[in-house]
Design a protein that fits this description.
Blueprint (H helix, E strand, L loop, with lengths): L1 E4 L5 E7 L2 E7 L7 E4 L13 E4 L7 E4 L4 E5 L4 E8 L4 E10 L15 E5 L2 E5 L5 E6 L2
């Protein structure tokens, strides 16, 4: 089965204030599509993605989808915030996702590479800009 995934341009910005460097990840910013085949996720028809996906607690990898297209979360270390569009059949594209870039030794910050997702049963399969599955989050 073929799923369309967006290609993304990833940009970072840094700002120094009073000797402290603040960095933002200006996440997937394009709206085109690129093909990804054989990713193992099957979109679920008639699915509402609103709500929390992922572990409990602020530092557990998670995403919170608002009812009006807003998304926020944490990759286990860094906060994320942006917007999303959902097709209603379980496919999600992320837009203008911003996040902090703190150093987090020993923490796998895979979620900050998100570009799209597909609801697959009780899990959200998360994909990077190349259409590769980078992880899964259970519905909370």
């Amino acid at each position: 089965m073929l799923f369309l995934r967006r290609a993304a341009i990833v940009t970072t910005a840094a700002l120094t204030l009073g000797g402290v460097v603040f960095a933002l990840w200006l996440g997937p910013l394009s709206s085109g599509g690129s093909g990804a085949e054989g990713d193992g996720a099957t979109p679920a028809p008639g699915v509402d993605v609103a709500g929390r996906w992922g572990g409990d607690g602020d530092r557990a990898p998670h995403l919170i989808f608002g009812a009006h297209g807003e998304v926020s979360g944490n990759d286990g270390c860094n906060g994320l915030s942006g917007s999303y569009t959902a097709t209603g059949d379980g496919e999600v594209d992320f837009h203008d996702v911003l996040g902090t870039l703190k150093a987090c030794p020993g923490v796998d910050t895979w979620l900050h590479r998100l570009a799209s997702a597909v609801v697959d049963g009780d899990e959200l399969a998360v994909f990077d800009a190349a259409g590769e599955e980078i992880g899964r989050l259970p519905r909370a």
